[in-house]
Amino acid sequence: MELRLSVCVLLLLCAVKSSNGGKILVWYTEASHWINMKPVLETLVDRGHQVTVLIPSASMFMNSSEPSRFQYEPFDVDISVKDLERLFQDVLHFSLYEMDFMNPYEISVKFFDLMKNNMKISVKFLDGVVKSKPIMKKLKEGNYDLLFADPIYPGYDLIADILGLPLVLSLRFSIAHNLERMCGQLPAPPSFVPAVMSKLTDKMDFSERLSNVLFYTSQDFLIRQFMWKPIDEYYSEIKGTPTSACELVGKADIWLLRTYWDFDFPRPLLPNFKFVGGIHCKPAKPLPEEIEKFVQSSGDAGIVVFSLGSMVKNVSTEKANMIAAALAQLPQKVLWRYSGQKPQTLGSNTRIYDWIPQNDLLGHAKTKAFITHGGTNGIYEAIYHGVPMVGIPMFGDQPDNMVHMEAKGAAVSVKFNFMTNESLRDAVNTVINDKSYKENVMRLSKIHHDRPMSPRDEAVFWIDFSFLCCFHQGFLRECAFVGEHLGAFSCISVFLLFLPQTVYFYLIGF
Ligand SMILES: *[C@@H]1O[C@H](CO)[C@@H](O)[C@H](O)[C@H]1NC(C)=O
Ligand SMILES: *[C@@H]1O[C@H](CO)[C@@H](O)[C@H](O)[C@H]1NC(C)=O
Ligand SMILES: *[C@@H]1O[C@H](CO)[C@@H](O)[C@H](O)[C@H]1NC(C)=O
To answer: One Gene Ontology cellular component annotation (predicted)?
Structure first.
């Protein structure tokens, strides 16, 4: 009774305070992460909040000159955009053209090399904020109410701690859920929760469970060596006392994970983890006239939409010719987002564009299939509109994402380095002609839309809630206690690995 009363009082306080809006500080991010964050920030502004985004002098995607409704807090970094692009091209080249032809040892050596470079760049970014007296002074005098971060660049937790701000995180994943598990205490029993990037599903046989355990443990070890150790040293130096970054991250009030049960497999949860996959999705708008004409000319056969995402604009001439030859054999009309030279084998049914209104095309009644690199943003647009997919995964989480879609029967994947014009053509024909793909993706679409509020509204609700209700002072974080205990359970579950899932749940029931 008393508890209920105090919750009521808190809610009342919220109502009073919310009429004023709050000041939200946003940590810098990059690429598709920034694309994902913008709609949330727009909605926060709509609700009367003041949004200030930290923006580095070098970024591939963030641009402080772009007209927008939020404010920017620019800071200088000792890096050029060229450096960033070079690192990205290295990662891309490794993932696309080298990895498939290397042994595991060579892969790990190269991977750590890239990870170390990435860490160096992250530290330079952080220097630009933490070691700049004017910026720190501005942040301290900014009287912010909350820090909102996509944790791809470290430092947000340190600043939240220094400024004494509640912290809300928005992320798609960390490798092997390291951040979510180690810092956020999210349980991930390796017997049925596949590690992100492991390309496993929730249905694993014994050897797959074993490799899942090995994947978790090896990644944890490497991430500790290459990420947590240097970050801890950095934080300790700044704060002047031994500091654990993971502990600071663990103080986050809300974790907004950008997936949902249309995409993810069932897994144990904590109450401060919210699943908001599809934040950027929206209904389709009418197409530009020229594109609409081309789409209508497809007749009953319909169209295929093809994009390899915002980061990969061209491929080698040889690959482009092979892809074009595959597309030329389809009865559909094809709209291909591609900025390279026009391939010689391009069929009369295919048009290439520098840019396509992807969401509007996917929402068009004539769209039969989507050929995608398997980024979460594109996958979510396809789920939202119910379009079956053909995956050509390239780097990062993309192969793992496509494994999810294949496991749910909504996609077929082909391998970038090993596909032929026939295998790509057959994959597209399969997802269009075998009705089960359309049915399955429609089922996912139903799950996606079947929630009390849109993912964007839910994300904003929890951001509002975390500072308005002062619950960073311990209101909901009672759950961290439960989390710690479940954490112990997930260790035990390593030993229970060989047990079938139902028996496992039965045991946990005690
Ligand atoms: C940033 O945005 C401005 C205004 O839209 C534009 O003129 C400029 O070219 C952009 N800069 C980059 C690097 O994209
Ligand atoms: C893509 O285009 C860029 C710039 O035009 C070029 O440097 C790069 O080599 C091209 N990539 C491939 C795979 O052809
Ligand atoms: C497709 O690839 C095969 C070899 O895999 C080749 O013989 C054939 O000519 C190609 N088809 C087209 C239309 O280019």
So the answer is: membrane
